[in-house]
């Protein structure tokens, strides 16, 4: 649905405001272009990891190779002399001498905002610690010692279970944030656990990917073993003769290390990325591999660090996976495997990860050891070339002159603004909202 057709359907009552909003979000998300907006440079040698707060979708935290922490307000921009915009830093942890003692002693591997407010965030490191940071005091409020190198870390969104899952070598440690103590150890992998994620659907379900090529699903209520071990050869096993079984220890999801696992927003599917240069989509309920062919996706065999890929949940027909692939970021239709687009950075460095801002559909991309710390990709204007063509075609068919106030220089109209204000308002009086 184009922007103009969406407005027409909204005016005529053929679609709801929620459907119109989702259609516009789909168009904006799939139409990313390099933005002139840049982040103020904080890190001297690239960004290792970053996260956007899930509460407001506003504050971005990043950690560099030097372990300095940068915090940005993505809603605030400054105009440069050349017409471009700059997102300034709100604060930096580590550029002052007295803050150095709070930093990690080794490379930081992951960072995450506290799921329920922006008052604190967490970082993990190869120095075998997890640090809980206070954003008001700009220092570590607590340091949790795991006694193993931590490759990835994730905290679930359930307010009743403040558990941090830490991927180590070769086990998973569950840490209670309230006490700072490790409560459980999940054993099953035979190599470092590079990626770990809690299910958004069930707070007790956890997914993990490891160097051993295995992707496992855990129920933390049943300590001691995995409830599911994903096998890429499931369809082959179903065609074998009766009595011939593949041994469990050989069941692997990828023929290489798995350095990224991501649930869809509804928790029904799990997308995994391995150094065998393959993306695979799984049914998280049954463990079956979905018949989706993404083709080869470059992922270097020696990359034994987590990679940040992002999923946009637009429903079954418009969900998008943003996947780092060498020096580009490739956009895939999640359920068909079709390549929607490919984004290239100005720098020649390899893409490390990305985050999609669900508020304005901006995409933030980082690269390994790049002079540009964070690159920004933004949606095309609502009145892009495709929309203008739709307008011209509609005018030619109707042969009706268009009022001047609907065809301004900037393509904006008072009527469009009024519709957007009325239908995207958060007022309780709007009965059509969602």
What is the structural class? mainly beta
Total strands: 30
What's the alpha carbon Rg, rounded to whole Å?
23 Å
Question: Low-confidence parts lasting 5 or more residues at pLDDT below 50?
Answer: 236-242, 382-392, 397-434
Strand content is 25-35%
Give the biggest beta sheet. Answer: 4 strands, antiparallel
Strand order of the largest sheet: 1-30-29-28
What is the percent of helical residues? 10-25%
Multimerization status: single chain
Overall average residue pLDDT: 82
Terminal CA distance reads 18 Å
Number of helices: 5
| Silhouette | globular
Detailed description of the structure:
The protein is mainly beta and 434 residues long. 12% of the residues lie in helices and 35% in strands. Helix 1 packs antiparallel against helix 2 (17-30). The longest helix is centred in the N-terminal third of the chain and has 14 residues, at 17-30. It is globular and about 55 Å long.
Structural descriptors:
mainly beta, 434 residues, four-stranded antiparallel sheet, 30 strands, disordered C terminus, 5 helices
